[in-house]
Amino acid sequence: QVQLVESGGGSVQAGGSLRLSCAASGLTFTGAAIGWFRQAPGKEREFVAAISAGGNNIYHADSVRGRFTISRDTAKNTVYLQMNSLKPEDTARYHCAARNSLSQLLRTNIRDYNYWGQGTQVTVSS
């Protein structure tokens, strides 16, 4: 049974930082591409960042590029999202997702991911 468990969310002021973690189990971690998505109240879930199975290819949405960084630790079966210079518009529930793929081509559509975590809430106040 595949499980993705997010942690690290919280409440911060604008300009602050948080590091989200996504711990994966029940799948071949080195064979899975991982993505981070977020969903604010009343809005659709949107792509934030993705990392390839081997960790050598990453992609960030324009809205977070230069502020957020995705990375993975194979030894810990964990993917991270370092979030700096947070803005109120970053407020959302953040979900990690996995898809079994060794491709270097990263996907940004939620339909391309097979497994999802429950999410962790990030709230940024002005």
Defining traits:
mainly beta; 7-stranded mixed β-sheet; single chain
How would you briefly describe this protein structure?
The chain is an all-beta fold.
Fraction of residues in β-strands? over 45%
**Assembly type:** single chain
- Kindly, what is the distance between the CA atoms of the first and last residues, rounded to a whole number of angstroms? 40 Å
Note the run of SSEs as H and E: EEEEEEEEEEE
Radius of gyration over all CA atoms, rounded? 13 Å
Helix content: under 10%
Q: What structural class do the secondary elements suggest?
A: mainly beta
Biggest pleated-sheet summary: 7 strands, mixed
Basic shape: globular
Mean pLDDT: 96
Total number of beta strands: 11
Count of DSSP helices?
0
Low-confidence stretches: none
Task: Explain this structure.
By secondary structure, this protein is mainly β. The protein contains no helices and eleven strands. Strands 2, 4, 5, 6, 9, 10 and 11 form a seven-stranded mixed beta sheet that branches. A four-stranded antiparallel beta sheet has the order 1-3-8-7, with no helix packed on it.
Task: Break the fold down into its secondary structure elements and pairings.
Elements: E1 3-7, E2 10-13, E3 18-25, E4 32-39, E5 46-51, E6 58-60, E7 68-73, E8 78-83, E9 92-100, E10 115-116, E11 120-125
